[in-house]
Amino acid sequence: MRAYVSAGLLLLVIFGSLSAYLYRQFAMLSDADFGPGPITVTAATAQEAQWDTLLAAVGTVSAARGVELSSESSGQVASIRVASGDRVRRGDLLLTLDDREEKASRENQVASLELARLLYERDRKLIAQKSIPQSQFDRSRADLEQATAQLAETEARLDEKRIQAPFSGTVGIVHVKVGSYVNAGDSITSLQDLSELEVDFSVPARYYPQLREGQAITVKVDAYPDRVFSARLRALDASVDPDTNSLLLRAALAPQSALLPGMFVQLEIAMGQLNPVITVPETAVTYSLQGHTVYVLAQEEGAQTATVRIVETGDSRNGRVAILAGLAAGERVATSGQNKLFKGARVAVDETVVLEGL
């Protein structure tokens, strides 16, 4: 009987110890956090800044010296001295039309002029001797002047058969070939001096008091998405377009700008008016049709959490964007890893990444 009691007590001790062990294990598991771990992001602080007011516009590039060359007379193309894209100097012969008829006429008129000059010289001596009447001398003088004028007219027609470069520049695409027949006014090619380029653009007339010659202008073009060109305001039109109430402006591009006449460009004029703004890195903003958002980081119950917030954005400059509403200076925002965040998500900020300009 005593043996059964001892065995029962031993079993009771064993089961009691096992129950106590299992209770402690379950208690520890109940206190454990099985939620997702913190999401690693980089962060930046919203900063106050003073940004100049920029006036945006769209303009067209043109050459300060650029023309469409055309023929002043009709005729068949006899020779072409240049190729498309050639660089030429002022006065270089570019194209000649068939001028055989004019040359023959000139030879005839040169002979007529020489005869008229001889007769005039003879009659001038005779009139001095009073050997001929005054009317004969006057007729000889008139014949000389007429022959001179006819030769000059023929020389002018010959010049019209030759197209020369009015200034140094680059030849565009030549539209004619040897043997082609051209009419007066037909386009032959273009000539552009690419060393000096301008941009014409319009702005609302209300900005006229804030504009002045020499203002700095930044220029961007789709052909060079990673480059910014510089220009200076050169001239303002003397009147406002009454139909659009806009003012035409012209800016001079910096030399060697690698642009071509006819390109559309986007311009920004610094107006010289500083305005306070809140800025964050561009990577902090998520853009969508429903609204632009940022993830704001806050310390809650010993951990950092992310909260999504809708903001109103403004201009972007040098990798930062202006926040017009929805964010205050000093607040921390996530700058990378936002695609993994959600409302209330715990975050761990990677402090080893330092963004430029922060």
Q: What is this entry, summarized?
A:
This protein is of the alpha+beta class.
Characterization of this structure:
With 358 residues, this protein is an alpha+beta fold. It folds into 3 domains: 39-50 and 276-349, conserved putative lor/sdh protein from methanococcus maripaludis s2 fold (Beta Barrel); 55-64 and 195-274, Efflux pump adaptor protein, beta barrel domain (Elongation Factor Tu (Ef-tu), domain 3, Beta Barrel); 66-192, RNA polymerase II/Efflux pump adaptor protein, barrel-sandwich hybrid domain (OB fold (Dihydrolipoamide Acetyltransferase, E2P), Beta Barrel), CATH 2.40.50. The protein is 24% helix and 41% strand. It has 3 helices and 20 strands. Strands 1, 2, 11, 12, 13, 14, 15, 16, 17, 18, 19 and 20 form a 12-stranded mixed sheet that branches. Helix 2 (100-128) packs antiparallel against helix 3 (134-160). It is rod-shaped and about 180 Å long. The relative contact order is 0.19. The mean pLDDT is 85.
Write the layout of secondary structure elements.
Elements: H1 2-31, E1 39-45, E2 47-63, E3 66-70, E4 75-80, E5 87-88, E6 93-97, H2 100-128, H3 134-160, E7 162-164, E8 169-171, E9 181-182, E10 187-192, E11 197-204, E12 216-220, E13 229-241, E14 246-253, E15 264-281, E16 292-300, E17 303-317, E18 320-325, E19 332-336, E20 346-349
Parallel strand pairs: 1-20
Antiparallel strand pairs: 1-19, 2-11, 2-15, 3-10, 4-6, 4-9, 5-8, 6-7, 8-10, 11-14, 12-13, 12-15, 13-14, 15-18, 16-17, 16-19, 17-18, 17-20
